């Protein structure tokens, strides 16, 4: 699908697309998934949006991005030379980590800590699972080297660095052909001198090596989490750096012949915290991009929550490979610094997103005990579902939906493909129906129930298990497959309303248009709050604030475009976990610290069910967020009505499977539905980037923004 045009409050007439002098500027947001690459072009002078969806190229992901951008611009009548800004979410770091395809890494640690990554926290991956297996250490023991040195927790040099030993180790690493090196010394957050000296030695002895210092990536206490995060960065950095470099080079040529003198478009990479990184920072601190793609969808969910006046939403982004779920309460995003990716701790600020292997390409299979399973393996973009006819021989969720009549057999998200229901039925019968002695339709319905159950469990993880009642939320469903499963998921969880955005298939890319450049800074303090003066605490933020402003100004942001936010990690003295709370800017007064104490007790009661107001508090880490505001053209103009019809006209009627039987179901085109129109289920609503399934007993209306609001029932 290429060049889908969306009008968003046109301000000026469009110039002729071939007019070089009047060539409009536009920005692009691109979200690369495991199956499709989603592209959104936003014309800056009129607010027009053009969306495109092209197959991903997993072996060479920048090819889909660059080719897709050029083709989308041409289809939209835009001059490729008008591209001003590219905001990009990528799965390169995620795939490198989860698939074990990152670069070989050597790790330098303080003598005596060689088995740090192997020992970890000595806890079980799953408390009651006796067969649980811990993931292999990110760095094998043979590539972990002990260095004679020691810094105390107070930052004093206890044992000097043995530089001769470091040189010998670096020579050994060079001979082994390993060119990515992680350095994580004990207490380097308090004094990075030894780590920085090691970097200087590596630059002289082995200049081709890439180096990640824990004092750069995470200057924070807890040596296991800090070392794991440092190793993750070293593992994914070569792939991200090469990918971003190829992308930057490709963007130089996207302007076309004779336009090389024009400045290449700015390139920003989405990071896990929901902010943008400059391309250069992404090449250095690549671990910050591990949840790059899903973060855009969460930003879109926040935008929709504020736009529609629904403060509590749960976002459900179901693509071809996975489903990403995030809870937003009171129109506020939830962050964590205690995330894990593939079982490995990653202690960088990230949106609190829960991901499972459930997507349109998830493969159905029968296990050794005769139980029907779905995922986490996916058919991905190549070969894709069996019905794509590209060589896939495994039945997927997409094949099941096609057999059940929920997907139009004459329409595909990939316009170059013609769906083949015959192949979907063939492999469903061969791999699922025949082994389980079911009809093909029963097998397909069973697959849908299994994958829906997995998604419902995932939603409960971010809601019920954390004290939130799903009945108080609206389910915001998007991604290429999300709207097909949203109503069933809401019914299972007693969620009263489902919101389907105007363009669900590219919602994550659209969300990136609402992102700013973000830099996160942290320093460990370990201060007793009751014995800390307000001025003393405020002064500790000063170097972080100066660094944040300086780095953003170097990237071209004016002082008025920079927003500084303070945060502090607090805990009861003796606890191992912390809670993060905001602090006001400027000089602090005693009442500010009193408010901080009260806020901590209230938050602790909310999160854990109790508080200890008499217990002393400890400030563990000081955090600072520096935001550089990117200009954002308005994209929230209400949709104008084209006619006066109260009810849309269906395109056709076809049998669709609901509750163990086929029902005659009207099919509507999404672009025929206008604000204030409503209809009752059953219904199928088709658009170029997805299909929405409206179940019997539910109703749907179109709001002023063009969103579908499905009333499932209940509250």
UniProtKB/TrEMBL annotation:
Residues annotated as domain Acetophenone carboxylase-like C-terminal: 535-705
Residue ranges the record marks as coiled coil: none
Molecular function in Gene Ontology: N-methylhydantoinase (ATP-hydrolyzing) activity
Assigned keywords, A-Z: Hydrolase
Span of domain Hydantoinase A/oxoprolinase: 226-520
Enzyme Commission code(s) on record: 3.5.2.14
InterPro entries: ACX-like_C, ATPase_NBD, Hydant_A_N, Hydantoinase_A, Oxoprolinase-like
Region (Disordered): 1-25
Name listed for the protein in its UniProt record: N-methylhydantoinase A
Species assigned in the record: Desulfofundulus luciae
Lineage of source species: Bacteria, Bacillati, Bacillota, Clostridia, Eubacteriales
């Amino acid at each position: 699908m290429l060049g889908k045009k969306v009008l968003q409050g046109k301000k000026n007439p469009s110039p002729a697309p071939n007019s070089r002098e009047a060539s409009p500027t536009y920005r692009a947001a691109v979200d690369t998934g495991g199956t499709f690459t989603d592209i959104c072009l936003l014309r800056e002078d009129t607010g027009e949006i053009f969306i495109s969806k092209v197959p991903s190229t997993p072996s060479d992901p920048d090819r889909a991005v660059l080719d897709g951008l050029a083709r989308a611009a041409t289809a939209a009548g835009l001059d490729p030379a008008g591209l001003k800004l590219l905001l990009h979410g990528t799965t390169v770091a995620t795939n490198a980590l989860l698939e074990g395809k990152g670069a070989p890494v050597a790790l330098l640690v303080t003598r005596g800590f060689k088995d740090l990554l192997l020992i970890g926290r000595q806890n079980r991956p799953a408390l009651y699972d006796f067969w649980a297996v811990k993931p292999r250490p990110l760095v094998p023991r043979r590539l972990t080297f002990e260095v004679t040195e020691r810094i105390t927790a107070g930052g004093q040099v206890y044992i000097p660095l043995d530089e001769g030993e470091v040189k010998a180790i670096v020579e050994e690493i060079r001979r082994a052909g390993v060119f990515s090196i992680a350095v994580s010394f004990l207490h380097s957050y308090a004094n990075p001198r030894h780590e920085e000296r090691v970097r200087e030695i590596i630059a002289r002895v082995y200049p081709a090596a890439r180096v990640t210092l824990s004092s750069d990536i995470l200057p924070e206490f807890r040596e296991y989490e800090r070392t794991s995060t440092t190793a993750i960065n070293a593992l994914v950095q070569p792939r991200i750096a090469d990918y971003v470099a190829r992308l930057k080079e490709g963007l130089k040529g996207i302007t076309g012949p004779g336009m090389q003198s024009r400045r290449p478009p700015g390139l920003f990479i989405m990071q896990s915290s929901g902010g943008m990184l400059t391309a250069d920072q992404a090449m250095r601190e690549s671990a910050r991009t591990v949840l790059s793609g899903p973060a855009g969808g969460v930003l879109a969910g926040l935008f929709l929550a504020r736009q529609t006046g629904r403060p509590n939403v749960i976002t459900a982004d179901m693509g071809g490979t996975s489903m990403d779920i995030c809870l937003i309460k009171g129109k506020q995003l939830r962050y964590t610094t205690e995330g894990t990716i593939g079982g490995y701790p990653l202690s960088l600020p990230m949106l609190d997103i829960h991901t499972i292997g459930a997507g349109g390409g998830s493969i159905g299979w029968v296990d050794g005990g005769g139980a029907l399973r779905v995922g986490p393996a996916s058919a991905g973009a190549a070969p894709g579902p069996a019905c794509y006819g590209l060589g896939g021989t495994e039945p997927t969720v997409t094949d099941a939906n096609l057999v059940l009549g929920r997907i139009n057999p004459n329409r595909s998200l990939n316009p170059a493909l013609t769906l083949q229901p015959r192949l979907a039925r063939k492999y469903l019968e061969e791999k699922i129906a025949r082994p389980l002695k079911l009809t093909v339709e029963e097998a397909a319905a069973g697959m849908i129930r299994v994958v829906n159950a997995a998604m419902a469990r995932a939603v409960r993880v971010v809601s019920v298990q954390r004290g939130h009642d799903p009945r108080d939320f609206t389910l915001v469903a998007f991604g290429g497959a999300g709207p097909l499963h949203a109503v069933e998921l809401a019914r299972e969880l007693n969620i009263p309303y489902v919101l389907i955005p105007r363009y669900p298939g590219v919602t994550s890319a659209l969300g990136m248009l609402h992102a700013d450049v973000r830099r996160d800074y942290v320093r460990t303090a370990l201060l007793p709050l009751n014995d800390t003066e307000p001025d003393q605490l405020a002064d500790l933020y000063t170097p972080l604030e100066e660094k944040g402003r300086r780095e953003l100004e170097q990237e071209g942001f004016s002082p008025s475009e920079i927003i500084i936010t303070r945060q502090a990690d607090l805990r009861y003295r003796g606890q191992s976990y912390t809670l993060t709370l905001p602090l006001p800017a400027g000089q602090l007064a005693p009442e500010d610290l009193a408010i901080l104490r009260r806020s901590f007790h209230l938050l602790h009661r909310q999160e854990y069910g109790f508080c200890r107001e008499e217990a002393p508090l400890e400030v563990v880490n000081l955090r600072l967020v520096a935001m550089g505001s990117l200009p954002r053209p308005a994209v929230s103009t209400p949709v104008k009505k084209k006619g006066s019809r109260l009810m849309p006209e269906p395109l056709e009627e076809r049998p669709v499977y609901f509750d163990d039987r086929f029902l005659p179901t009207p099919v509507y085109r999404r672009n025929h539905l206008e604000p204030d129109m409503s209809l009752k289920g059953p219904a199928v609503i088709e658009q170029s980037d997805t299909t929405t399934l409206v179940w019997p007993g539910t109703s749907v209306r179109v709001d002023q923004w063009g969103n579908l609001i499905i009333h499932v029932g209940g509250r």
